[in-house]
Amino acid sequence: MADEREPPPLMDEDEKDTTEQSPPEEKAPEADQEVSLNDDDDKDDLFSDPPLLETSPAVDEKPEGETEDSSASASGDGGGGVLDDVPIEKEPPKEEKKEEPKKDEAEEEEQESGDTYDMEITITDPQKVGDGMGAYMRYTVITKTTDPAFKSSDMSVPRRFSDFLGLHQKLVAYHTTKGHIVPPVPEKSVVGMTKVKMGKGQDESNSLEFVEKRRAALERFLNRSAAHPKIRANQDFKEFLEKEELPKASNTAALSGAGMMRAFNKVMDSASKVVSKMNESDQWFEEKTQQIDNLDQQLKKLHTSVENMVNHRRELSNATAIFAKSAAMLGNAEEHTALSRAISQLAETEEEIEQLQSSQAATDFYVLSELLKDYIGLIASVREAFREREKAFHNWQHAQTTLAKKREQEAKLKTTGKTEKLPQVQQEITDWEEKVEKGQREFEAISKTIRREVNRFETNRVQDFRSVIIKYLETLMEKQQKLIQHWEAFLPEAKAIA
C-alpha cells in the first residue's frame, strides 16, 4: 500500500516544475487542440505523448529552451519517429548553401556573355596600295563605342591585312592558354592576293569579289572579338582600334619561316595528343568533345552543300543572262508584231530574273555560307582551348610524377644514411609540391573557364543561326515574290499573241 501511494507526490512535483518552467507549454496544448479538431488521430497522439516526456528525469534537468524543444517534438506521432524527422527538416538550408556557388557561376556567365557597353566596328574603303607584287590592300576600320575604356567613342584607323593577322596571333597567344575562345581570322591566300595584285579584265572582277569576301570576314572577326569582354579589354585589341599607326606585323607571311614553324608545331601537337591522350574523368568534357566533333563534321558537310548551291545559282544566273540576250535578238528579228513584242518582253523578264538569281546567290554566300565557315573556324578555336586544358593536365601530372620520384629519392637517402644530399632533395620536394599545387590550380581554372566559354559559344551559336535563318528565309521569300510578280506581268503579253 505504501508503494501505491508514492506516485501522487511525484506527479505533484512534476506539475510544480512544469508551472515554474515556462507558460508556453500550457499554451502549446491549446494550439494543438485547435489543430486537432480537424484530425482525431493527431488529438490522441498530442495528449498521450507529453505525460511520457514529463515523467522522464532528463526533461526536468534540461533548461527552458530544451523543454520547449521537447514539447514541440511531443506533438509528433511518436518519440522515435519525431527524432528521425528533425534532421530531415534541417537539410534544406544545406542545399541552399550548395546552390550559392551555382548562382555565382550563373552570374559570372551572364557577365561573360552580356555586354554593358555597345561597340560596332565596320571595315570600309578597301584600297590597293602600290603596284606589282609589292602591292597590298589597306582597309579603314571605323569603331563606334560607348565603352569609356577607349580613348574616343568614334575612331577611324587604316589597317592592312598583316595587321589583322598580327592581332590574331597576339590574342591567341594570350587568351587561348587561359581557355578563352578566340574568333577566327580569314586565312592568308597567296592565289587570291596574286589575282588582286596582277589581275586585269575578268581577273579584276574576280579580285574585287575576293577583296569583298575578305573585308566582310575581317569585319566579323573584329565584331566577334569585341563582343567578348575579356578580348575587348585586351591592350593589343584596344591599340589596334585606337592607334593611327602600328608596328609592322612580323611572321605573318604565308610562306615565311615562322609560318612553316607554326604549321610544324600544329602537327607536333596533334601527334603528341595521339601519343599522350588525356584520360578524361569529367563526363561534361567527354560529352562536349564528342558533341563538338559531330558538330564540326555536320557543319563541314552543310558548308560544302551550300557552296555547291551558290555555284549552281551563279551558273543559273549566267545561263539566264545568255538566254535573255538571245531572246532579245530574236525579238528584234521577228516580223510578227505581237510575237516580237512578247519575245522582247520575255527577254526583259529574264533579265530581271537574272538579277534576282545573282542577288540570291550573293545572299546564299554572305549570309549562310560564311556563317557556316565562321563556325567551323570557331570550333577549331574551341578545340585549341581543349588542347590547352590537356596541356595543363599533363603539366600537373608531370609535376606529380616528379614529386613522387623526389620523395622516393628522399626515402632512399634516409635508409642508406647519405644525408649530405638530403637538404637539397628536401628543397626540391618543396619546390615540386608548389608546382603540383600550381598545376592543379591552373588545370581547375582553365577547366572552369572553358565551361563558361563553351556555354557562351552555344548560346551565341543558337542566336546567330536563328537570326541568319530568319534573314535568309525572308530574303528568299522576297525574291520568290518578285519572281512571281515578273511572270504575272509577262503573262498578259503572252496571251495577247494572236
TrEMBL record:
Among InterPro entries, the record links this protein to: AH/BAR_dom_sf, PX_dom, PX_dom_sf, Vps5_C
Q: SMART domains from the xrefs?
A: PX
Task: Write out the ranges of the annotated region (Disordered).
Answer: 1-119
Key words, A-Z: Acetylation, Cell projection, Coiled coil, Endosome, Membrane, Phosphoprotein, Protein transport, Transport
Top-level lineage group? Eukaryota
Q: Which residues form the PX domain?
A: 117-248
Where does the record place it?
A: Cell projection; Early endosome membrane
Coiled-coil stretches, from where to where? 285-312
Q: Give the Basic and acidic residues compositional bias ranges.
A: 87-105
What is the topology of this protein in the membrane according to its UniProt annotation? Peripheral membrane protein
Which protein is depicted?
Answer: Sorting nexin-2
* Family under the similarity heading: Belongs to the sorting nexin family.
Return the SUPFAM superfamilies for the record.
BAR/IMD domain-like, PX domain
Organism field:
Holothuria leucospilota (Black long sea cucumber)
GO molecular-function term, one example from the UniProt record: phosphatidylinositol binding
Composition bias (Acidic residues) maps to 31-44, 106-118
* Principal subcellular localization: other
One Gene Ontology cellular component:
cytosol
Q: Which GO terms describe its biological process?
A: early endosome to Golgi transport; protein transport
One Pfam family linked to the record: PX
